[in-house]
Amino acid sequence: MDNFKKAKALLTALLTSAVALGAQIPSASAEDYVLTNPDILTLFGDVNFDGAVGLADAVQLNRYLLAENAELGNWKNADIAEDGTIDVFDLIYLRRQLLGEKPPVGGTLNINVADMMTGELLEGADINLSGVIGQSSFPLGSFHFDPEDTISIHGLPTSEKYKYVLEIKRLPDNYGNRFGGWDRSMKIGFDQDSETKDLTVRLLSDDAELNIDAGCFDWTKGDSESSHGMFTVTSKDGEIFYQNIRANDFALPDGEYHIDMRPETQAPLNLLDPDSDFAKYIAEIYPDVSFMDKSDGIDITVKDGKPDKDVFFDFGPINNFANKLEINCFDADTYELVEGAEMTIIEAPDTYAKKIADVVSNADDTIIIDSLYRAGENAYKVILNNIPEGYIGPDEVTINTGYLTNALSEVTIPLIPQQKAEDVTVKVHNISDNKEVDGIGIKIYDMDNKLFADVKSGEPFVLTDGMYTAEINAEDAASKHFKALSLIRNVNTADPKYTWWTENHGLIMFKVSGGIPDTSIDLYIADADTSDEELESFVKELYPEANKD
Asked: Where residue 450 falls among pLDDT bands split at 50, 70, 90?
């Protein structure tokens, strides 16, 4: 503060007015306040740095200029004239401002709270306001909104460096369950060359109809995702209707709007580039689908409560990435590559089922298939059309892949010498009617968590010696209107532990010696409408020791 000087010589003309002004209220000291950052302008005239402008500020500034107090709560707030000097002119302006003779220095923020659909002002909202500049924040007060009285905060810095965060601490009645998907906060700033900011916080009532279909579509998985980003919805005039709303259905009154998407996903995805190789590939599969560049948002019109378009944003891989598959068929006894297995690779077998390639295994090298644009569960299926003589193997193998990141997924298909007996069977029991159910999909994994075989319950098959995990294919069970119980059993544990961490996949670990499993491989399902309470009761009855600590 070296360039700040005290102007005692000019105080004579002020003694009558300023001292009289100070005599009306108790004096305030900077020591009465916590100085979190006194070197930042927070509120013009807030000399004592208490978040408000009043007579106490004039008293402290007066005492400072009279050299009665060597400190100011915030010396930048005291420079009301914005001339780089704290002097009598700042005190004069502050006094005239408090007397209503001069408008407040700085910007004015006017806040109203209204119903989203009707625009009617609402009673019952409590609001906190804070300022933010860089890494510093400062409180500006708590307010209760009254429809008869707009909340107005004066003296705010209007530089683009300053932002203001509004938090709704209490919502009006019937507005508590649906804040429009926000986190109950808004972050705003003043427009360039503007000293006034009018803000209407719009709240969606609990019983409002959601008339806007909205979401994100991940074309790498062929699935809708609401967690990939946030919408900002403004009117054509720039008025905020939703600042941060998850990509779910929402509501808007009649009008013209602009909607921006802010991607917020940890997945390697971005808004789809309509000129990318990936977009062209998807367009070949779905000729009726057309993509547009939505990086600058989209415009919609709502008339008679109906929008002229749905609000969906398309996502694709970053950097036009694709994935690869490495497929090998090996002898389950010797682990050597097997030649002559004829296979077909199908992409998205559950939806558009596109044939990618016909391939034949060889004994010298694995098969590499690149430029693959499908991700997620059941992204690909390998159908074994012909298995070499002397071997048995699965009819097909499903492949789950990660996001498109130029990753290589290894697919190992064990072929078992045919002289081995089919001594392994998985039994699936329906607890709803106490019957065994054949034909439920079962996945067998080795101890490296690699898929070893796809089999069906009730059908004998062959396994080489080793440790394995059998898991119910939950999607296959669901397609047959069952749900799988999550029973986790270690090879050394007599009773399973009931849990849901496997996402409804029944699991059991077992060991094969001499082609024979060391335990009966029993998994359980229930009718799809069976309650969780019934499932837990069944497990406790079947395995009374299972859930004891």
From this structure: confident
Give how far the C-alpha of residue 167 lies from the chain's centroid of Cα atoms, to the nearest Å. Answer: 20
By C-alpha distance, which of 212, 208, 296 is closest to 246?
212
Task: Return the residue matching tokens 């409804």.
Answer: 504
Look at 2-16, 90-104, 217-231, 258-272 and tell me which has the smallest mean pLDDT.
2-16
CATH topology of domain 107-318: Immunoglobulin-like (2.60.40)
- 411 neighbors 326 (Cβ within 8 angstroms): yes
State pLDDT tens for residues 81-103: 888 888 888 898 888 888 888 88
By CB atoms closer than 10 A (0-12, 13-18, 19+), residue 184 is middle
CATH topology of domain 321-419: Immunoglobulin-like (2.60.40)
Per-residue model confidence as pLDDT tens digits over 366-384: 999 999 999 998 999 999 9
Cβ burial, residue 515 (10 Å; 0-12/13-18/19+): middle
3-state secondary structure string, 396-464? EEEEEECCCCCCEEEEEEEEEECCCCCCECEEEEECCCCEECCCCEEEEEECCCCEEEEEECCCCECCC
The Cα 514–Cα 244 span in angstroms is 61
Do 455 and 444 contact (CB within 8 A), yes or no?
yes
Residue 185, burial from CB neighbour count under 10 angstroms (0-12, 13-18, 19+): middle
CA 83 – CA 98 distance, rounded (Å)? 20
Q: Identify the CATH assignment for 9-98 out of 1.20.1050.10, 1.10.150.120, 1.10.1330.10, 3.30.530.20.
A: 1.10.1330.10
